[in-house]
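Hi R.,

Quick one: here's the Protein HflK sequence you asked about.
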Amino acid sequence: MSFERGDLREIDWGKIENLRPLLLWGAPAILLAIFVYTSIYTVQAESQGVVLRFGKYIKTVDPGLRFKLPFGVDQVFIVPVKRQLKQEFGFGTEGGLDATQFSSEQAEERNIVTGDLNAATVEWVIQYRIREPQLFLFEVRNPGETLRDISESVMRSVVGDRTVDEVITVGRQEIEVDALLQLQEVVNKYRLGLSIDQVQLKNVNPPVMVQPSFNEVNQAQQEREKMINVANGEYNKVVPRASGEAEQKIQAAEGYALKRVNEAEGDVSRFNAVLTEFLKAPEVTKRRIYIETMRQVVPNLGKKIIIDEEASQILPLLQLSTDSQGGQR
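And here's the predicted structure, written out as tokens:
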């Protein structure tokens, strides 16, 4: 079976006629879908978007639904500016989202020489945030790796200014503060666009060969501190108590002295008042003093019978007074 050239042309034009509606509606729909897909984007709540137009920085946008020029004219880089990032040195935690969170050269990172030429194994963590997304993305190539190099350099410098005892024991907090200040200064100088939140020392140990001896020394220091704390506790318990008792006795003595002085002054005032009355009327005053005195003395003498001294013929067996035990007086 054979076909002529005219028949083939009729068949081809017929197929094209059938595909024309599809091309008329399908192509615009595809272009519209591509337009929408490449012009709408979302910036998450903890991030900011850096917009580039033909590779040139245009602006930084906040979280939300945003629009850009489609078909690759505008490019958007999402940067987590509110998320706290971290890098670990001398050790590594698996599952970190940041590729620069830890390095494979952990043994080299943790070995640091101190100021007295001793070796120490130091593990530390830095926590930071992206403060300026534009600088973070475009100012320095590989900002995460650059930050790791800067942090290691700063830590070696700070530890190298101190003895091994300071690094392992009392100097940890001072090292963290100094490393934070120096690291932030260098980061600002390099224009990395980062804010260093914290530098934290983790495990700080002496070399393996001397570690048992160092542990014994450390234990002895801890026992010494414990004994000092116990002694201070006893001191703080006994001394305030003794001070309180002394203060109590002093106040009691002062009160007694004030009482005696007031009583003496009262006696003097009363004597002076009596003396004034005595000078005015001596006989009357004597009699009054005698009567008042007897009024106070006689009730304390018990039961008494008063008779005339010239009386006679008194019965000798008369029980004039009997004490509490049945005897006579």
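The helical segments are 5-39, 106-110, 133-138, 143-160, 164-168, 172-190, 211-280, 282-297.

Cheers,
M.
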